[in-house]
Amino acid sequence: MATRKTSPEDLLGPVTIAVGQEDLLLDRVVQAVVSAARAADADTDVRDLTSDQLQPGSLAELTSPSLFAERKVLVVRNAQDLSADSIKDVKAYLDDPVEDISLVLLHAGGAKGKGLLDAARKAGAREVACPKTTKPAERLTFVRQEFRTLGRSATPEACQALVDSIGSDLRELASAVAQLTSDVDGTIDEAVVGRYYTGRAEASSFNIADRAVEGRAAEALEALRWSLSTGVAPVLITSALAQGVRAIGKLSSARGGRPADLARELGMPPWKIDRVRQQMRGWTPDGVALALRAIAEADAGVKGGGDDPEYALEKAVVAVAQAARMRRG
To answer: How many angstroms separate the CA atoms of 17 and 53, rounded?
Structure first.
C-alpha cells in the first residue's frame, strides 16, 4: 500500500486528488499532470472520464498492462458521485497503484464521497485545493498571482480595476490577464485595463462612482458617457454615486479600528473598508453633504423631474468630484 506522502511537486505521482468546486483550478490540475506525463512520454494515453463513465470493473481494464508499455493519465471527474462499487474499485487500486499510470480524482469536497477522499489521503496521494472563490479579495489575489505567474508586473489599481470590470468568473479573469500580458509591454496600469475592459455593464456604474469620489472628474465623465451610450440605466448610476458617498460618510464618522471590526459595525465587507479609506482622502463632512444633495437632485432629474437626465448626471458627477477635493483645495 502507498503510504508515503507524494510531494506537491511530483506531478507524476500515482494519485492526485483535486478538491474543490472551482472549475478553472480543477482543469489546471488536470492540464499540469497531462503536460508532465507527455513531457516524459509524448505518446501518453489520456482518458478523461465522468463519474458515470467509470463503471464497476472498468478501472481494472483501464489500468491493465499495455502491450506498448505506454504511460497513462486517468482522470475521474466528480469522483464524489461514483457508485459504491466503483468507489470500492478505486480504493482497492489505491492499495496497489500501477507504475506509469497517474490517476487524477476531481472531488467537490464535502461529506459526499468523503470515504474516497480519506482513502486517497491515507494512501499518500498528492492533494491540490481548488476552492470556489467567493470573496472579491480572493479574486484580487488570483489576478495578482496570474500576473506573477506570467512574469509581468501590474499595479494594484490595475488588478482591482480588472476584478471590478470582469466580475467573478475566474476563466474570464485569467483570459483577461493573458490578453493584457500578450498585448501590452511594460507595467500594466489602470489606464490600460480601462481601455480594454471598462464599461462592462455590471461594473460601469460603480466605476463612475469610484472615479468621482476620488476627485477624478474627467475620467468619471468619460465613463459616464460610455455607460449611457451602452444603455446603462441612469438610476443605477445615481444609486452607485449615492452608495459611494454614503460609504465615505459612514467610514469618516466611525471609530478607528481594524477593517474586520469596522466591516461588522458598518455592514461593509473588509475589502471595501480598505478601498473607501483610500478614497476618503480630501473629503470633509460638508463635502459629503454637498455631494449627497447633488446626487439627490440628479436622481430626481433622471426619474422625470428634469428635461435632460444626461446633463443632470454630468452635474452630479462634477459636484461629487469637486466635493472630494474640498480639503485639498
So the answer is: 18
pTM to 2 decimals?
Answer: 0.59
* Contact yes or no for 288/248 (Cβ under 8 A): yes
Classify 193 in phi/psi space as left (phi over 0), alpha (psi -120 to 50) or beta: alpha
Q: How far apart are CA 125 and CA 37, in angstroms?
A: 17
H helix intervals, 151-258:
156-166, 170-183, 190-197, 201-213, 217-229, 234-253
pLDDT digits (tens, 9 = 90+) for 43-75: 899 999 999 999 999 999 999 876 666 789 999
Q: And the C-alpha cell for 33?
A: 499532470
Whether the Cβ atoms of residue 313 and residue 234 lie closer than 8 Å to each other: yes
- The 10s digit of each residue's pLDDT in 3-45 is 456 556 789 999 999 999 998 999 999 999 999 999 999 989 9
CA 53/CA 86 separation, integer angstroms: 10
What percent of the residues of the chain are helix, what percent strand, and what percent coil, each to the nearest 5?
60, 10, 30
Amino acid letter for position 5: K
Phi-psi domain of 70 (left: phi exceeds 0; alpha: psi -120 through 50; beta: other) = beta
3-state secondary structure of 233: coil
CA 233, 214, 155 angle in degrees (round to 5)? Answer: 100
CA atoms within 13 A on the CB side of 43: 4
**DSSP letter string, 39-61:** HH-TT-EEEEEEGGGS-TTHHHH
194 is written with which cell numbers?
A: 480601462
List the one residue out of 174, 181, 137 whose CA is nearest residue 28. 174
Residue 220's closest CA among 156, 300, 140, 316?
A: 316
